[in-house]
Amino acid sequence: MWENELTRELKIKYPIIQAPMAGGITSPELVAAVSNSGGLGMIGAGYMSPSQLRKQISEVRRLTDYPFGINLFIPSEFRVDSEKLNLTKAIIQPFKEELVVKEEPILPTYEGDLSTFHEQLSIVVEEKVPICSFTFGLPSPEVIARLKENSIVLIGTATTVQEAIMNENAGMDAVVVQGSEAGGHRGTFQGEEKQSLIGLMSLIPQVADAIRIPKIAAGGIMDGRGIIAAKCLGATGVQMGTAFLVCEESGANILHKNAIIKASENQVVLTKAFSGKMARGINNRFITEMRRYEEELPVYPLQNELTKAIRKASAAIGIPEYMSLWSGQSPRIAKKLPARELVKRIVTEAETLRVKL
Amino acid sequence: MWENELTRELKIKYPIIQAPMAGGITSPELVAAVSNSGGLGMIGAGYMSPSQLRKQISEVRRLTDYPFGINLFIPSEFRVDSEKLNLTKAIIQPFKEELVVKEEPILPTYEGDLSTFHEQLSIVVEEKVPICSFTFGLPSPEVIARLKENSIVLIGTATTVQEAIMNENAGMDAVVVQGSEAGGHRGTFQGEEKQSLIGLMSLIPQVADAIRIPKIAAGGIMDGRGIIAAKCLGATGVQMGTAFLVCEESGANILHKNAIIKASENQVVLTKAFSGKMARGINNRFITEMRRYEEELPVYPLQNELTKAIRKASAAIGIPEYMSLWSGQSPRIAKKLPARELVKRIVTEAETLRVKL
Question: Which family does it belong to (chains A, B) (predicted)?
């Protein structure tokens, strides 16, 4: 039942990928536990420095002999609009005072991001990481060629049919099909974020009709029901974020895990307030108070850097109101379990459901 | 494979319901063709006068001996804000001039809507229509009791888990679970429309965990893949709108059908511009030009009445730019077929898929 094109390509038992959530969630323990359970653990390396990434890889390798992957963010050029910068600084100043945040952000530059990206790529190659996925765009033909020469399996991200086709044409080996249900950042890189919020019930079959490479459904999938449903719609595998975020081994803050466990599906909202890029998370004071400024904020990654200290301070004092509580639309299904137990349950549930259909 | 609690209750062969799209789409030919094919045809009676409704029922009865249903809109109280009325009148005046629309709208009142609703209900009872579904709210306990005494099967609409529970508690026999993928108006009646846009991959399993009555999945389902996927997620049946809208027998304007056939999934957007209530349709000039005023428009049904003549005139001169081109998020899967042929294809596809899983 489980073996298919994707499991063969990734050399895994179950087509279940742990989403490469950035920001410390994908602890080596989580990544290794998922890979050891027959799924694919992924390191969310988007925000990692080269040294952090090297350390993470070696820690994962100490905990598993199975394949694992790494996700990188494609840097994009951005313009620093000082008017917008000043606006957002003024808006968030009261939050900084409330949380006693003194530090001033160091603003990122495209050149800096690009140089980090290339260092990250070199580590992926040197360390012979078997799988590398990308978010927020497509790597250049040169990068793709280099990784392919090193037999690294490449996975892209798409939120529309057009983006899926672009991934296939660029030579990706598989593509994550991110539905509107998905938690965290939207992977949209072509066209408007608002017009790229397609539910998986619509997105998977339309993508499946348009491309041939394996399609990995992502968004709201938390259990065996979602896996079999995704398969019916044309997906080759699934990627699950929120379901693994609440797992015991995940590095997510306990406040974040608890917020998901307590949330209902309509408390999960879309916001640009934290990073300048649209993302889905549990509604809180920061999102609510920033709502009216949303269209005037600096773009990603500027806004992301500007709010970083607030989010950190909020977590440090144990108040979730200013944290980015990323979650997909199925929080009611979330369960705090060891990752191995979660994978086992999902697999059993899927197998039982398939027989009953 | 097909018989279940819902097919037994509705006395149909396949748990496939044709969505009760209002505004002349559900022609007697379409409703009868769906019922004759083993699904459930539904009359979208929301905007129908009592005499139109009687006529429609008798025409459907002439074309089928199988069960069919009727959908009614629950009237809700609204406040006439003359400032907003004047604003929208001013905004749409240029469109009226462009389309040479002279007629002035007659504004609806809550009392008028309520009286029409009660007349519609009386017709449903007198004509012994076997199934009655509701959108935009819950009928009163008195209405529910009256319909139940007459052995009419009652179906509600929910866009969140909470609304689904409210439907079950009110005594509905089944509930349509409307995902964010769905075309046309959002059925949200509790809480904010924007926070009630849940993709079916998330919504169905969370509703299935919360209520016992049959769940009818609606939104983006167009073929056998969607039906089996919905079933995996916990749905008892499906309701399909866009898929039937483009069918040969549908009363939808040919411009509307063609717009769907040509559209891609990310051209389908949410708008309040046509009616004051959030709805999903294909982007056009009217939606684009009204975008910036969206939060300042009069509420439903006022805005609906104010834009009616524009939409009608747009259709009359053969330009789809000012029409409400309702569509779900899967337009790429739409096919112009006779309804009987569509049902047959879907059933065969679902049966084949189930065996292959």
Answer: Belongs to the nitronate monooxygenase family. NMO class I subfamily.
- Which residues contact residue B223 at a Cβ distance below 8 angstroms, ignoring those fewer than 6 apart? A205, B243, B333, B345, B346, B349
- Other CB atoms within 10 Å distance of the CB of residue B333: 20
Query: What are the chain A neighbours of B179 within 8 Å (beta carbons)?
Result: 199, 201
CA distance A50 to A52: 6
Q: Which two three-digit tokens encode residue A171?
A: 């030579």
| CATH class label, A5-79+110-267+328-356 | alpha beta
A232, A269, A332 member nearest B209 (Cβ): A332
Interface mutation vs chain B, best among A159, A201, A203, A330, most B CBs within 10 Å: A201
Contacts of A267 in chain B (CB under 8 A): 195
d(CA A120, CA A16) in angstroms, rounded, equals 25
Contacts of B232 in chain A (CB under 8 A): 225, 228-229, 232, 353, 357
Of residues B191, B223, B232, nearest to A225 (C-beta): B232
**Tokens standing for A122?**
């070199």
Contact A71, A133 (CB under 8 A): yes
Q: Which residue of B has its CA nearest to A282?
A: B195
pLDDT digits (tens, 9 = 90+) for A228-278: 999 999 999 999 999 999 999 999 999 999 999 999 999 999 999 999 999
Q: For every one of its 357 residues, what pLDDT tens digit does chain B have, with 9 covering 90 and above?
A: 899 999 999 999 999 999 999 999 999 999 999 999 999 999 999 999 999 999 999 999 999 999 999 999 999 999 999 999 999 999 999 999 999 999 889 999 999 999 999 999 999 999 999 999 999 999 999 999 999 999 999 999 999 999 999 999 999 999 999 999 999 999 999 999 999 999 999 999 999 999 999 999 999 999 999 999 999 999 999 999 999 999 999 999 999 999 999 999 999 999 999 999 999 999 999 999 999 999 899 999 999 999 999 999 999 999 999 999 999 999 999 999 999 999 999 999 999 999 988
Other CB atoms within a 10 A radius of the CB of residue A357 amount to 14
Residues of B whose CB is below 8 A from A203: 265, 329
Under CATH, to which class is B5-356 assigned?
A: alpha beta
- Indicate yes or no: CB of B220 within 8 angstroms of CB of A201: yes
Distance from C-alpha of A348 to C-alpha of A247, rounded to nearest angstrom: 18
**Under an 8 A CB cutoff, do B202 and A195 touch?**
no
Question: Min CA distance, A70 vs chain B (Å)?
Answer: 26
- Chain B residue at shortest CA distance from A159: B266
**CA of A46, closest CA in chain B: separation in Å?**
26
User: Minimal CA–CA distance to B191: which of A199, A266, A262?
Assistant: A266
Three-state DSSP at B161 gives helix
Query: Which pair of structure tokens corresponds to residue A260?
Result: 């998901």
- B225:A202 CB<8 A: no
CA angle at residue A191 from B329 to A45, to 5 degrees?
Answer: 100
What pairing do the DSSP bridges indicate for beta strands B237-240 and B215-218?
Answer: parallel
From the list B194, B219, B269, which residue is nearest A201 (CB)? B219
ipTM: 0.97
| Minimum distance, in Å, between the CA of residue B131 and any CA atom of chain A | 27
